[in-house]
Specification:
Blueprint lengths: L4 H8 L4 E4 L2 E7 L5 E7 L3 H15 L5 H9 L2 E2 L3 H10 L2 H6 L21 E7 L10 E7 L5 E6 L4 H16 L4 E4 L8 H10 L2 E4 L8
Parallel strand pairs: 3-4, 5-8, 8-9
Antiparallel strand pairs: 1-2, 2-3, 5-6, 6-7
Length: about 210
């Protein structure tokens, strides 16, 4: 009598199946012998999506396919469960929306050693955040020597907004510094910022990545 591949798989694993309180389980055994744990057998097709959502978005917190497989393998088993798990993870909306893909190989971190307080100030922005009274970004300045941080909210990322905050929040109350380190954002790499550094005698430095050869 012809049988589907699923039936053939279950027949081949007949000795690993066990019925407990009316529920069919599958014994998951180590290659060297000994039962590792029992799996619930044959999750109905109608419940598999709900199971994936419960594990992937709940217990597994949108982990990758490899870690997700470990989470699914413990409580459940059915024919083609591994390929179904891989397919579900690759079709997950939040994962596809926020995943940035494989991180490129990078060079070693560079020495950030400085010799005195306010020798170098590192400047960066975070956001956009939930708006509070029209303030959606946070500008952060940190002394590389002492790790002292000054942070203040701003409404936008315009060069004038950042430059005014740097002058009012850092330079006027704490004094000038020798070097300013920031990334290549337009709010830092502009004529106004360079003119401010030149007038204050500050050397403008820019962060960059050193990509290692593949």
């Amino acid at each position: 009598m012809p049988c589907s591949n699923e039936v053939k798989v279950f027949v081949s694993q007949w000795k690993s199946l066990i019925v407990d309180d009316g529920i069919v389980h599958r014994k998951f055994e180590r290659p060297t012998g000994g039962v590792l744990f029992y799996q619930l057998l044959v999750v109905p097709i109608s419940m598999r999506a709900e199971l994936f959502e419960l594990i992937h978005a709940g217990a597994a917190c949108h982990l990758g396919v490899r870690k997700k497989i470990d989470q699914v393998q413990r409580p459940a088993y059915w024919f083609s469960w591994r390929s179904d798990t891989d397919r579900f993870c690759r079709r997950c909306g939040p994962c596809n929306q926020y995943a940035k893909g494989r991180v490129p190989r990078q060079g070693l971190l560079q020495d950030m050693r400085v010799g005195a307080p306010m020798d170098r100030v590192e400047l960066d922005l975070t956001g956009s955040h939930v708006s509070v009274n029209g303030l959606t970004y946070i500008c952060i300045a940190m002394c590389s020597f002492t790790k002292f941080v000054v942070a203040w909210p701003i409404r936008d990322k315009k060069a004038t907004t950042v430059a005014r905050g740097l002058m009012e929040r850092v330079i006027l109350p704490l004094g000038s510094f020798r070097e300013l380190l920031a990334d290549d954002g337009k709010e830092f790499e502009n004529e106004l910022c360079h003119d401010l550094c030149r007038l204050m005698g500050i050397e403008k430095l820019r962060t960059y990545f050193l990509y290692a050869a593949v």
